[in-house]
Amino acid sequence: MKRIGNLYARIAEPENLRLAFLKAVRGKRGKAEVLSYRGSLDANLQLLRSQLLSGRLDVGHYHFFTVYDPKERIICAASFPERVLHHAIMNVCEPVLERYAIHDSYACRTGKGMHAAVLRAQAFARKYPWHLKLDIRKYFDSIDHQKLMELLVRRIKDAEVLRAVGGILETYETDPGRGLPIGNLLSQHLANFYLGHLDHHVKEVLRTKGYVRYMDDFVLWGAEKGELRERLDDIRLFLRESLGLVLKDNVQLNRSSSGLPFLGYRIFPDRLALGPRARRRFSIRMRGYEQEYIAGAWSEPVLARHTEALLSYVCFADSLGFRKQTIARFSLIS
Asked: Taking Cα atoms as reference points, which of 255, 251, 217 lies closest to residue 236?
């Protein structure tokens, strides 16, 4: 594949920086750091442009916090000026990474969201009698900076872009030379790109027709159990030797008719069910939303907006009975 160059100047263009700001501000317009940045928008964008042109980026200002949904994770959020920078880089570099992506990679891509991945998985479940579900142990923490840069060099020949990305990588590590911060736009795209190397191995070397990956959760389908067991051994070796990654122990090799737990759903050839964790999260969040409304923190329109977003997830599954039973317990939002 042809390497792409002449990218860095486009990243620093004023029009691109302004577009990056507009993307970074979505959903955050009322936050103090956003209001402060917007108050001197032209000056701040000019400062970012000067940093880009001089090669002296001010990066590494992170805010850490913990979330517990669905499991405990430490989120590392970059400062707002850095988020603008990340968007500016991805505005230009995302099409380059997109050219490398296979059809059945579904995270961080336009039109390739969670529901698209679930529907594709169900299509394969109808076609193949066996599935093999795998995911990576501590994926973001395990990504090797040097290996990631080597993969980027194969796609991008602009030295200034590579130097900028490398500088951002150096600001965070969980072990020496390893780790991407969960919660940043650039991290999401780079993490998805990193496993693109696995995608091409599975599709082109193993010649697997039934395959779907959503970030570090991925599934292979096949006609024979033994065939998938052989591919498991190959993938385990490839991940360790080529990407420095280790599979989790919870390998699932099962019949498609038994249901595939994937992205919060249980996927059968003929129906979609909510997984047990998704059911619990739905109930807990509904209770929390009601409490926000009772306490006066949320108006009815705010409550409706949050509830609608939550329902869009569970409504995708065959969950009418569960939804009615759960919502009936909440008198204010029934």
From this structure: 251
Enumerate the H helices of 113-259 as residue ranges: 114-127, 139-142, 145-155, 159-169, 185-194, 196-200, 225-238
Q: Which has the closest alpha carbon to 89: 178, 188, 226, 180?
A: 188
Tally the residues of the chain: 334
Cα–Cα distance, 120 to 124 (Å, whole number): 6
Q: What percent of the chain has pLDDT over 70?
A: 96
Residue 323 DSSP label = H
Query: Residue 55 — φ and ψ, nearest 5°?
Result: 75, 15
Q: What is the DSSP string of 269-301?
A: SS-EEE-HHHHHHHHHHHHHHHHHHHTTSS-HH
- Give pLDDT tens digits for 204-257: 999 999 999 999 999 999 999 999 999 999 999 999 999 999 999 999 999 999
pLDDT tens digits for 52-77? 999 999 999 999 888 876 677 888 99
Tell whether the model's pLDDT for residue 334 goes beyond 90: no
Work out whether strand 210-214 and strand 217-222 pair parallel, antiparallel, or are unpaired: antiparallel
User: Residue 189's closest CA among 229, 233, 152, 221?
Assistant: 152
Query: Residue 59 — left, alpha, or beta (φ > 0 → left; ψ -120 to 50 → alpha)?
Result: beta
The single-letter code of the amino acid at 226 is: G
Indicate left, alpha or beta for 207 from its phi (over 0: left) and psi (-120 to 50: alpha): left
pTM equals: 0.90
Over residues 126-153, the mean pLDDT reads 97
Bridge partners of residue 265, in order along the sequence: 262, 274
The rounded distance, in Å, linking the Cα atoms of 191 and 119 is 23
- Enter the tokens of residue 60: 């590494």
Q: Per residue in 168-208, pLDDT tens?
A: 999 999 999 999 999 899 999 999 999 999 999 999 999 99
